């Protein structure tokens, strides 16, 4: 093989390696942008553990939330809380009341944020019909269970629930303790 032939082959190999490096750089950038989009990596923003303790959850629904710009920024910073929140059904719509989204200190000066304002829930008409029917006829209530990210959107998991009596709560705690003891006994073996 001649000197010119070797030079051409080496040039082609170098160009191929540069192309691979460029492609690898693009893929790495896409991966880093994807991890930045989800924030800390966790998609869950807030959980309502008290609801699982106080209610029997019969059915779960996923609802969108109508949020203002400052609220989305605050939720991205992890400043959402749904512990004391509840869902109200009125005039064919579902509303989230009592959810607390703390505004950021860097919020705009021309906006006066209300951290506990009522927020509209976005549900399909048949889901709303099912919720209205169960609440009106069967004595159910609707509670907020979790606030989380689904892609670029904030979603709220709501549950169709019945309240627990005091003896039901004690039975749940007793069952949980027994399950924990069983797991410990199995680990000792």
The CATH superfamily name of the largest domain is Small protein B
Structural class: alpha+beta
Radius of gyration: 26 Å
Instruction: Give the termini separation.
Output: 71 Å
Explain what the structure shows.
With 189 residues, the chain is α+β, with helices and mostly antiparallel strands. It has 2 domains: 1-37; 44-169, Small Protein B, Chain: A. The protein contains 5 helices and 9 strands. It has a 7-stranded antiparallel sheet. Strands 3-6 form a two-stranded antiparallel ribbon. The longest helix is centred in the first third of the chain and has 35 residues, at 3-37.
How is the topology of this model organized?
Blueprint: H1 3-37, E1 44-47, H2 49-54, E2 55-65, H3 69-76, E3 80-81, E4 86-90, E5 93-97, E6 100-101, E7 119-122, H4 125-137, E8 141-150, E9 153-163, H5 166-188
